[in-house]
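Appendix B. Raw example, untouched.
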Amino acid sequence: MKTEIKPKYIVCDLDGCLIDSAWIWEVVKQQGVSRDEAFDIFNRLANADKNRIEIPLYKYLCFKASGGFKIHFLTARSELIEVETINFIQKKTGLIYGKEFTISFRPNNDVSSPAESKAVRIQSFIDSGREVALAIDDEIEVLKMYASKKIPFLRWIIGFLPVQVVQEYGNQIGNLINVKEELSVN
C-alpha cells in the first residue's frame, strides 16, 4: 500500500517581501488622499515596471522549491488586480502560475487588516489539507498570527538576509547574495 506524500508549502507575502513596492506609499503620502483613494493609487501602481523583485528572496524560494516545497503567495492585495499581479510575477520572475506557484488574494469586499484577512485564508488553506512548512512576511502582526497557528515563520525585510537563511545556506550564501539587480526573464 502506497502512502500519499502531501507537498509542503512555503507561504510568502508579496509587497515588502518578494516585491519592493514601498515607493507607492510614498507617492500616496505626498498626495495626502483618503484611504479609498490611497488603495486606488496602490492598485494602479502595484504592478508597475518600477516595482523591483527582491532577488535574494526569489532565489531562496527557488532553492526551497528545488527541495520539493510548493510556493503559495498569500497577499493583502485585492482580487481587483489578480490577473495583473499574476502576469507581473510571471514576467518578472519567470515562475509559472499554477505550475510553480499558487496565490491567494484579499476578496474585493474584505476591509479587515492584513493579519485578519490572511488568518482566514491561511486557515482555509490548512483546512483543505495543505501543510505549511514556513511562512514569510514583513509585518509583525501577520507573523504573530502565523505563530498563533504554530506555523514556522521568517520575517523578511527587503535588503536584509534573515539569520535563519544565512545559517541554512552556510558556505553557499554567495549563491544567494551575488546577484544582478534585475532578473532577465523577458
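End of appendix B.
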